[in-house]
Amino acid sequence: MNQDLIPTADAVHKLIQELNKLPGIGPKSAQRLAYYLLRSSEEQTRLLAEAMLSVKQTTRLCSICFNVTDFDPCPLCRNDRRDRSQICIVEQPQDILALEHTGIYKGLYHVLHGAISPTEGVGTDDIRIREVMLRLEGGSVDEVILATNTTLEGEQTAMYLNQLISPLGIRVTRLARGLPFGTELEYADDVTLTRAIEGRQEF
Ligand SMILES: [Zn+2]
């Protein structure tokens, strides 16, 4: 777009462009946020900018479950009260937040950081599948709960994992039965998720 035609300062225009790249933020929302930040105090803006940088600089992935954490291993993996015989496999770290919010699951987790998607060029080696198979080699896991999204990619990933894991003699369950097709876990409500965990079925 011709810069001369944009009736705002260059810095504001750049901020709108960056905000517009965020998920769920359309051009109108990006504009509203940019002008809100322009009006807010320098202190408030600085806190926001620092928080944004800090998530990149101070967080890492847990070397066991690949959740986002300040410390490695993460608090969930270090917690002695968690049931080490169960591993719940999810696509993204925020899915752990959703499941933990229900308070019903007491086992461990494994974050794949994606789902198999041939159309987007995401193969089995591009997500943390090898790492979960290594964890299962230890022999202390009795049940793996496949909690990938109920989208096409999530279902494909669950099927692939089942093919790998069930020959090991480990119980494989899927919690999606109560969830409508197309559900992304992070957006599911507590009641639905609780029912889905309690009503999980053999794959
Ligand atoms: Zn962990």
What secondary-structure arrangement, pairings included, does this model have?
Elements: H1 10-20, H2 27-39, H3 42-57, E1 60-61, E2 68-69, H4 75-78, E3 83-90, H5 93-102, E4 107-111, H6 129-136, E5 143-146, H7 152-165, E6 171-174, H8 190-198, E7 201-202
Parallel strand pairs: 3-4, 3-5, 5-6
Antiparallel strand pairs: 1-2, 6-7
Helix pairs in contact: 1-2, 5-8
This protein binds zinc ion.
Residues 62, 64-65, 67, 73-74, 76-77 line the site of zinc ion.
Features:
5-stranded mixed β-sheet, 203 residues, binds zinc ion, 8 helices, two-stranded antiparallel sheet, alpha/beta, 42% helix
What does this entry show, briefly?
This protein is α/β, with parallel strands linked by helices and 203 residues long. The chain has eight helices and seven strands. The chain is elongated and about 65 Å long.
